[in-house]
Amino acid sequence: MRLMTDSLKPIDGLSTRPPPSLLDGLNETQAEAVRATEGPVLVLAGAGTGKTRVLTTRLAHILASGRARPWQVLAVTFTNKAAREMRERVARLLDCSVEGWWVGTFHAACARMLRGHAERVGLKPSFGILDTDDQLRLLKQLIEARNIDAKKLPPRLFSSVMQRWKDRGLTPERVTEAEGADAVDGLALPLYRDYQERLSALNACDFGDLLLHALTLFRDHPDVAERYRNQFRYLLVDEYQDTNVAQYLWLRALAQGHHNLCCVGDDDQSIYSWRGAEVGNILRFERDFPGAKVIRLECNYRSTSHILAAASGLIAHNRGRLGKTLWTTAAGGEKVCVRATWDGEDEARVVCGEIESRRASGHALGEIAVLVRAGFQTREFEERLIILGIPYRVIGGARFYERQEIRDAIGYFRIVVRGDDDLAFERIVNTPKRGLGAATLRAVHQLARGDGLPLSIAAARLVESDELKPQARGSLGRLLADIGRWREMLTRLPHPEVARALLDESGYTAMWQADRSPEAEGRLDNLKELVVALAEFESLPAFLEHVSLVMDNDEAAGDDKVGLMTLHAAKGLEFDTVFLPGWEEGIFPNQRALDEGGEASLEEERRLAYVGLTRARRRAIVTYAASRMVFGTWQNALPSRFVKELPAIDIDHTAPTGLFRATPSRAPADGAWPMAEPVHLAAADTSGAPRWPIRRPTPPLIEGRAERVAARPEPSHPFTTGQRVFHQKFGYGAVRRVDGDRLEIDFEKAGNKTVIHSFVETA
DNA sequence: TCCCTCCTTGTTTTT
DNA sequence: CAAGGAGGGA
Q1: Nearest DNA or RNA nucleotide to A208 (CA to C1')
Q2: For residue A456, is pLDDT > 70?
Q3: By mean pLDDT, which of A532-541, A702-711, A722-731 is the weakest?
Q4: Is A696 exposed, middle or buried (0-12, 13-18, 19+ CB in 10 A)?
């Protein structure tokens, strides 16, 4: 996203040659969503209903019909990936370049506006954009400056509170007294002020600020707001259910001109409330924008009818939906397979075994994905896939530009390009180790703060004086001289060459070469890759502007590998075959979400499950384990309540023999259990005899064919009825009943609770 | 200043 | 269990 001029390639030719095919192939509702260009429109697009197609065609239609020129349309998305896709598709539809158009992420659009009016919000046009790491380091300094115990109240905590305020469009002045007093013992608000002040002084802003400043700009400078309001005749928004309050206010401000706001989204796929997204935005659309037209895209082109029905049946358990009825013309297909497994290892074995046999029958691995609730769950699958020699790719995880070595390298680039980039200076000053520790840094800081200087200038002054120990002085002097030299090199040599020289001469490459850890080699490769990436930009500053906004790293998804990713990362993707492991209470729905967010969070977890199921085109396989190793201890698990919420006629529920008893102990309430009920579900009505079918740590299983010994109930813990015990959270109590691993305990303070034995100790 | 050991703490993540 | 941070010792 560099400086984009509003001049553009000829598109006028299009009006004389209207592409007759633009609406071809769209169904009636989709076409309606494209044609309804005037006034506010909400397109409720269920999973797999052709949302992106509608969005891009609509944009193309607006331009091709001459309703607006390219710079008069603003189209915003959340991710760079989505933005890129939209640009590519529109370019293809109209057969022209989209260079300079306002098609991009919310943040890129705001940054572009702010670059033009930076002074109005107290920044210089060259302002830098902080990444998460910079933010946390900065916050830590501010926390310590206020003598707050950073151990008890870590930077992350403050960061998230402040971030949530920014998500709601609240500058420090706008946070109410009451709320300020409430947040982190009243410490968060003053710290928020410190932080914003510090950012201004650094001529920098964080991601949240891009929107916040844009809002301030509109609010305090009506002329600017007016300008953009008039400019943008048509507004298009992707994934509207993910917008936060700040984004909503920003859109509303822009829509006040021509009122042509079209938002596309799906309330059932809102899974980001924890980072400030407001489902309320989409639920309230008709009230917010009077006269709004609501168009529902309900014809699903992706999944088979069983998958669709299973997903719909599940999501129907949520309340407060706008409601959609997805349907498909593709009848039949396989039922959703639900499979019980013994434990995490067994689950990985089952899933990867399936993958293996699909590969053997010619299935493309790139069309298979394993979608987990949390990142750590990928480990077991990775291990198993490695054993089987099946290529895979973990999507998400540490992104390229977030890796330590990349940020360090970029830190060097930053300090060379912008001598006053204090955060970059701090980052690299003692990396690699050059004997510049806390003491030296303190001296530099002190001088810098006292005289209002950037750190590197202060450091240069210190080197001239004799206030430093000779060693530190020499070392710091050498670093500064190096920086100066690299800066000079930049004026006469190609920047990739300078980058290479810089990494060598600074000792940074050598640092990783000397490193014996297994990942060092990969890091060196990454550094080489970085230099290659660099060459694609015309200059180092141009590159830096790019990385600050475009932190994505789409691994070439070209090669044929199984995808491992979180459910969040899977949103927007689709695969022939989708495995959904870990459907257990506590894992999915996630315990923490349940504890912290109650019913609302449960519904979000359910939406996550919905997102997962609807990623599948032909086959969805849900698995759960009866026992799982969690944080180093074995825990028994109950199947996720979501399993029971899947309509029985659309699923095929199986379990290995021995895991379930032969006959159900009670009739399934809603017909949801077409087979023997898992014993661990029947636990409630028992009278004490331990009959837990789960073994303690899984015995190593010989490759291939080992008979599973039916688990026998074993007294795996010493607790007996009447015994006095202690629990970390609930305190002291007496055991009232023993039921396998579960103990019903009458706690003195907390009352009657059923807990797993491993959580209590004898008192 | 650096390195090692002990202790804590475990979702989801884009820009 | 495993990783990352903090604090103490050399």
Answers
A1: B15
A2: yes
A3: A702-711
A4: exposed
Among A484, A476, A507, A477, smallest CA distance to A419 is for: A484
Q: How many CB atoms neighbour CB A657 within 10 A?
A: 9
What the block records as the tokens of A16 is 């004389």
A269 is catalytic: yes
Whether any strand B atom is under 7 angstroms from the Cβ of A179: the reply reads no
Predicted confidence (pLDDT) per residue in A213-254, tens digit = 999 999 999 999 999 999 999 999 999 999 999 999 999 999
What tens digit of pLDDT does each residue of A289-348 get?
999 999 999 999 999 999 999 999 999 999 878 888 889 877 778 999 999 999 999 999
Give the Cα separation of A763 and A758 in Å (integer).
14
pLDDT(A662) > 70:
no
Residues A56, A77, A135, A269: which is the catalytic one? Answer: A269
Cβ of A151 near strand C (distance < 7 A): yes
Strands A562-566 vs A392-394: parallel, antiparallel or unpaired: parallel
Residue in A167, A209, A239, A347 annotated catalytic: A239
C1’ B7 / CA A622, Å: 38
Q: How confident is the model at residue A205 (pLDDT cuts 50, 70, 90)?
A: very high
Q: Which residue has the tokens 């005037």?
A: A38
A630 nearest nucleotide via C1' and CA: C1
Indicate if CB(A275) is under 7 A from strand B. yes
* AA identity, residue A362: G
CA A732 to C1' C8, in angstroms, rounded, equals: 36
Active site residue A469: no
Segment A92-117, tens digit of pLDDT: 999 999 999 999 999 999 999 999 99
Residue A706: count of CB within 10 angstroms of its CB = 10
At residue A461's C-alpha, the angle toward residues A459 and A465, to 5°, is 115
Q: How far is the CA of A630 from the C1' of B7 (A)?
A: 19
- Residues A454, A420: contact at Cβ < 8 Å? yes
Q: Is the CB of A152 under 7 A from strand C?
A: no
Vertex A635 angle, CA A631 and A638, to 5°: 125
Structure tokens at A663: 């006959």
pLDDT for res A547: 81
**Phi and psi at residue A684, in whole multiples of 5°?**
-60, -35
Q: Report the C-alpha gap between A742 and A636 in whole angstroms.
A: 9
The pLDDT score that the predictor gives to residue A705 is: 24
